[in-house]
Each structure stands twice: as C-alpha cells, then as structure tokens.
Amino acid sequence: MLGVNVHKIRLAGPWMVVDETGSSRRTRLPVDRLSKQETRLVRRFGRPGRLDADERVWLVVAGLSGSTGILLNEIPLELEKSPDGGRADVTDRLVSGNVLEFQWSGGESGGLAGPVWLECVSC
User: Fold this and answer.
1) Mind giving me the DSSP string for 31-63?
2) What radius of gyration, in Å, describes the C-alpha atoms of the chain?
3) Closest of 55, 58, 54, 42 to residue 93, by C-alpha
4) DSSP class of residue 20?
5) Rounded to whole angstroms, how far apart are CA atoms 110 and 18?
6) What is the pTM for the complete model shown?
7) Is residue 85 a contact partner of residue 117, using CB atoms and an 8 Å limit?
8) What is the pLDDT of residues 22-64, one digit of tens each?
9) Cβ(116)–Cβ(9) below 8 Å
C-alpha cells in the first residue's frame, strides 16, 4: 500500500502463566494451557510513544487455540480474523500501563503459539 508506514513492537516476553490456585510463573511463548485447569496468560506493556493523530495501533495475535477469552485492561477484546491470525484495533484502549490477558477454562485444550505484537500504522 502506497503511503502506509508500519512499525512492529513484539510482545515476546516475559509472560506470566497463572493457574486456578493463583500460582504464577514467568514464561515465554509458546504456551499450552494447563491441563484441565483454568489458566491465564498475562503480559504487561507500555503504550507506544509519539503516536500521530492519524496513527492506529493494532494488536496482532498468531497461533491462538482453544476457547479463549481475551482482555485488554480488564475489558473483553474481540479479534478479527486476518492472514496473521487475529487482530484488533486497540488505539483508543491503550493507557500508559496495559495488561493483556488470555483466559482458558473448561476441558478443551488450547494455548498460544505466538507471536504477539503491536502494529503502529500511519497513513
């Protein structure tokens, strides 16, 4: 696309895996949910600096499997299907300290193979 500038920011790690008892451990992707346990995968990140008025920030998630709830700053987030996996425009939801969370429950297997990144897109 002519005139489009894209800057990627990888959310590689560390991630925190939290089990149903509240125990947590640091990890990196890929992550499989804990067998038959409610599992949360949490990553904190800052708001990209110097965003122009016409710039949008997209959260892009690849390799997500299983029935997964996604929260950004404790608010549910829906991903649109894309060639990369799934993406959502998060520009208006970002604050200085953000928390991205994936939640799995029930008996279905699942996980996050990744990668996960932010795309800052300006036209």
Assistant:
1) EEPPTTS-EEEEEEEEPPSS--TT-EEEEEE-S
2) 15
3) 58
4) T
5) 15
6) 0.91
7) no
8) 899 999 999 998 777 889 999 999 999 888 888 999 999 999 9
9) no
